[in-house]
């Protein structure tokens, strides 16, 4: 890591942002790794399973906008403390009272969605400490907290076998409480936090076409990542007959690949430009989802293709947020919330559409092919705007970072 990067910002806050993001994402996708056992006990069909794992993703998408506004009013540190306390209380309630119906899974999913909204807290906490030329690295490190999804996939199925899946909701509250203490000590709000604006002023960014492009680009990269993190345990169990624990290990491998390379994606974008990096990643993702849609004959083959696709999506997440702060430096709080929201919506679409595709056609192919098509459309859109971006807000002399 470059010495200039270490001197540029506030390392304890960056660590706090990563830790908060990490454990929050762990519980955000918790229902995905537990879905096989939960669906069996609650007698859910394929569509209900898909919607169950997609509900936290949708709730997280909506709540990211709320957190994006709260961050500017309350500042990132206090917003994070409040949200984490609510999530811990919700997990303990689910553990104590239990989950006995499909409707109750929806209610728990909404609480878990607040953990997913941590995105709109952790990224501004880190971003506001760093200059434009280090945004890709800083947000890549903070955003690598999506590696928490690995822990959910890796340990939740085994803990469910050992202690029962209801008790897993209580167990995961323990690391959240520990991180809450560390976050309260390490996190510090940047002195450059912008003053709060009216709600109308916040959403005035929606009048800017570039905001919509970023929303769409992130709905594909992050949507693909979190959608797969929520759904792959179900897919490997249903498509290849793997046990819940083995399916969880396969999911963990895919998610680990995608989360590990997010900082690398940001660093690569800092070096070669976010547009160029993102273009390559969309091409790889399009190819990977198209191939896997045909139902490869062996689980290890599908695992290899999913890992490749997740590598592209993970690096794409870092590349998108190398670009966003350059275009919307003063509006980074609300832009993080809005762009993060559409990322969650993309994840909700993928997770739920895979379930409905299986329910209606008997195959996951349609769901994967449509998502591959969206990645290709994103590539075409990026190609269409890149010249304008490079000659306006990304022009030499206007930005110290590469676009």
Automatic annotation (TrEMBL):
Protein name, UniProt field:
Nitrate transporter
Localization per Swiss-Prot or TrEMBL: Membrane
Please provide, in alphabetical order, the Gene Ontology terms of the cellular component aspect for this entry. Answer: membrane
A GO molecular-function annotation: nitrate transmembrane transporter activity
Lineage, top ranks: Bacteria, Pseudomonadati, Pseudomonadota, Alphaproteobacteria, Rhodospirillales
Q: From which organism does this entry originate?
A: Aliidongia dinghuensis
One Gene Ontology term of the biological-process aspect is: nitrate assimilation
Does this entry carry the keyword Transmembrane?
yes
Statement: the UniProt record of this protein carries the keyword Electron transport: no
**Bilayer disposition of the protein:** Multi-pass membrane protein
Return the PANTHER family for the record.
HIGH-AFFINITY NITRATE TRANSPORTER 2.3
Q: Which family does it belong to?
A: Belongs to the major facilitator superfamily. Nitrate/nitrite porter (TC 2.A.1.8) family.
Domain Major facilitator superfamily (MFS) profile residue range list: 12-390
Which keywords label this protein? Membrane, Nitrate assimilation, Transmembrane, Transmembrane helix
The domain of life for this entry's organism is Bacteria
Q: Where do transmembrane segments lie in this chain?
A: 12-31, 51-71, 78-99, 105-126, 138-162, 168-187, 240-261, 273-292, 298-320, 332-351, 363-382
